[in-house]
Amino acid sequence: MTKPIHIVRYGELVPCKTAFIDAHTPGSDKKENFTIIGGGVSEAADQHVHIKKTPGFNIGAAGQPPKCRNSLHTHRTAEVFFVLSGKWRFFWGRWGKTGEVILEPGDIFNIPTGMFRGFENIGTDYSMIMAILGGDDAGGGVVWAPQVIEEAKEHGLILGENGVLYDTKKSESLPDGINPKEVMDEASLNLMGEPSVTDIVPRWVSRYQDMLALSREGEVPVIGVNGLIFDKPGFEVSFLSSYTPIKEMGSNRYDVLMPIKGHWKLSYGSHEEILNSGDTALIEPKCDYTLEPSMSGEASLYRVRNTDDAAGPTWFERNQ
Fold first, then answer.
1. Do residues 142 and 41 lie in contact, with contact meaning Cβ atoms separated by under 8 Å?
2. Residues 126 and 59 in one domain
3. Which end of the chain has fewer beta carbons closer than 10 Å to its terminal beta carbon, N or C?
4. Are residues 38 and 63 in the same domain?
C-alpha cells in the first residue's frame, strides 16, 4: 500500500550548487538550490529531486550565505517565497532597481509574473527561503534578464536552447544542432512590468506578525480568491498557528504542510510524525489526518493546496 504521507526533513535536504546559469557569476556562485516536490526549474542534470510527484505545483528552497544573491529572472507561472530564516532583500525591474522589499522569517511574497525579480541574503548567517512554483512543470523553466546570460557566458556557463547548461570550464560545449538560448528581444523586454514599491508591497506581501494575530480567529487564507493576497495561481496558501489545530477529513486535494516555527504533531491512522521548522510534508488526497502543536510555545506553518484555477495573468496584463 502506498504511504498517504511523504515527509522531507530539513536535515536531509540535498543541495545543488550548479542549478542555474549564474552558478559561476561572482556574487551568485555560493548559493544552493533544493528541489523538494517536483523538478522545479533547475537547469542542472544533477539536481536531486526529493519527491518527483507534483500536486499541481512545485516546492523548492534556496539557501545562501550572507551577501549572496539570485540573479534577475522571471517565470511564466506563479513564484511564491516565504522566509524560513534570516533577512532577505527582494528586488525587481529590468535592472533590479525599480523596487525592493525586505522580508524576515515567516513573511511571504507572491511575486507577480511578467516582471524580473531577484533576491539577496542581507543577514549575517547562512539562511533559507522556501518557494512554491505554479504548475506541474513549473512553467517550463526560467527566463533570465539578458545581462545575466551575457555575464554567465563570461564566466564559462552557456544555456542551450534545450534548457541545459554547458560548462566550458569543464570542456563542455553545445552539441551539434543545439544553439545558445536566445536572450529576450527588445519588444518583449518593453512589455515587462516595472511596478513601484507601492504597487507591489501592500498587495503582494503578507507579514508574519499580522498573520499570527489573525490566526487567533482560525486558519488564515493568505493566497487565493479569499486570501489576504488575492490571486489564482493554481494553488492556495493558508497560515496556521498554535491557535489553529486542524482535523482534516480526507479531501480530494493534496495538502503540503511547511512549518515555519515550533513543532507540530501530524497524526494519521495509527501513525504519528513530528514536523519541525524546514520540514515539508506532502499529504495524498482522501487521507484523514489531524495536526496540532506538539509542544508549548509559538508554532506556525503554511498549508498549500492545489486548486482548479489556471495561473492568472501577468502583471502587465493586470494593469492594462
1. yes
2. yes
3. N
4. yes
Residue 155, domain member (yes or no)? yes
Residues 232 and 115 in one domain: no
Contact in structure between 17 and 23 (CB atoms under 8 Å): yes
Number of domains in the chain: 2
pLDDT of residue 215: 95
Tell me what pLDDT residue 138 has. 60
pLDDT of residue 218: 92
Residue 76 lies in a domain: yes
Which residue range(s) make up the domain with 163? 13-172+196-204
Q: How many CA atoms lie within 13 A of 229 on its CB side?
A: 30
pLDDT at 296: 81
CA distance 278 to 261: 8
CA distance 270 to 280: 20
Are residues 105 and 132 both part of a single domain?
A: yes
Q: Which residues of the chain have pLDDT under 50?
A: 1, 139, 316, 320
pTM: 0.92
Mind listing the pLDDT tens digit for each residue in 137-165?
Answer: 764 568 899 999 999 999 989 888 887 88
CA atoms within 13 A on the CB side of 128: 17
Burial track 288-312 (b if 16+ CB lie within 10 A, e otherwise): ebebebbeeeebbbbbbbbeebebb
Strands of the sheet with 263-268, listed across from one edge: 246-248, 289-293, 263-268, 271-276
Question: What pLDDT shows up at residue 7?
Answer: 97
Mark which of 183, 204, 225 sits at the end of a domain.
Answer: 204
